[in-house]
Design a protein that fits this description.
The chain is 31% helix and 26% strand. It is of the alpha/beta class and 313 residues long. The two termini are 24 Å apart.
């Protein structure tokens, strides 16, 4: 890709964008990203992007709708300013849990968001650990799907935990947990659960040897914290020596931090795809940066190099 490499950011996670820029030795692009008095989002690009290869770093985290609108308008502004290519860098993809209809007369919201990003003018999307990999198919533009598993696995490998067992909190996450297990050399366990309501969970059964082992629950996101706390308690009840947890996206909605903090978990590890505030409730939450991985991916996209090594290293 010829032309300058430029990176812009909305207000969702400017710290991550600045860290990515530091790794790439480029300055974060100047832009006004604010709000008019009537509540409408205001965007103005304040430097020349004509002919540039532009990346917009903007996870669609809380407030989801506001940050999504910032992303869409940034993409549109850059297209109208004659950027040669615009890549939407969405470390956390909001609405990802709404990727299918569970009952009649429901939208497939993740598909609607994909349509909006495409129509706004994005040429490609760079994201991390989509809740449902099938969301890639919702886009008619290229999608590069990064994985945080190797980074999280490296952290736990360095801890040299005694007799570890990797636990998938549901059947849908078995593939993720198995890949994690192979990286750290552990056994595997699976929790079977059901959801009586969208934000409630009921644990039904557990498969795998737990007693006397150090359990590591591996998931893609922590939202309300209820599933994680119940799973951790169930593991202790089955005889686990200690219980840890790791997740790519630390959403921590509502009172999730308190729930996780009061649980039997020794430590919960998340990445900074979503900004994490410091405070007393974060005492047992460890945040690992994914900025180096995104910086490498952006550089490879800019130079038209393969990203496969990042996926399978």
């Amino acid at each position: 890709m010829e032309g300058r490499l430029q990176i812009f950011s909305g207000n969702a996670n400017r710290a991550l964008a600045q860290e990515i820029c530091a790794h790439l030795n480029v300055n974060l692009g100047r832009a006004v990203v604010g709000m008019f008095k009537n509540g409408e989002t205001r965007i103005k690009i304040e430097e020349n992007v004509r002919g540039s290869d532009v990346f917009v770093v903007q996870p669609t985290c809380t407030p989801v709708n506001h940050h999504l609108m910032e992303l869409l308008l940034l993409i549109d502004a850059l297209r109208r300013a004659s950027a040669a290519r615009v890549t939407a860098v969405v470390p956390y993809y909001g609405y990802a849990k709404q990727e299918k209809k569970t009952t009649g007369r429901e939208p497939i919201s993740a598909k609607v968001v994909a349509n909006m990003i495409t129509v706004a003018g994005a040429d490609r999307v760079l994201t991390m650990d989509l809740h449902a990999p099938a969301i890639e198919g919702f886009f008619d533009i290229p999608v590069d799907h990064l994985q945080a598993g190797p980074i999280l696995a490296e952290y736990f490998s360095a801890m040299s935990l005694l007799d570890p067992v990797v636990v998938s909190p549901d059947a849908g996450g078995v593939g993720r947990a198995n890949a994690f297990r192979e990286r750290i050399g552990a056994s595997l366990a699976i929790i079977a659960k059901q959801r009586p309501t969208p934000d409630a969970v009921e644990i039904l059964e557990m498969v795998g040897e737990i007693e006397g082992k150090t359990a590591i629950i591996v998931d893609d996101m922590i939202s309300t914290g209820g599933t994680l706390a119940q799973a951790a308690q169930a593991l202790r009840d089955r005889g686990a020596r200690e219980v840890y947890a790791c997740s790519t996206h630390g959403i921590f909605a509502d009172h999730a931090l308190t729930i996780v903090g009061e649980s039997v978990l020794v430590e919960t590890v998340v990445t900074n795809t979503i900004p994490q505030e410091s405070g007393q409730n974060y005492g047992r939450v460890k945040v690992i940066s994914v900025a180096p991985l995104f910086a490498e991916a952006i550089l490879r996209i800019h130079k038209d190099l393969s990203l496969s090594a990042l996926f399978h290293e």
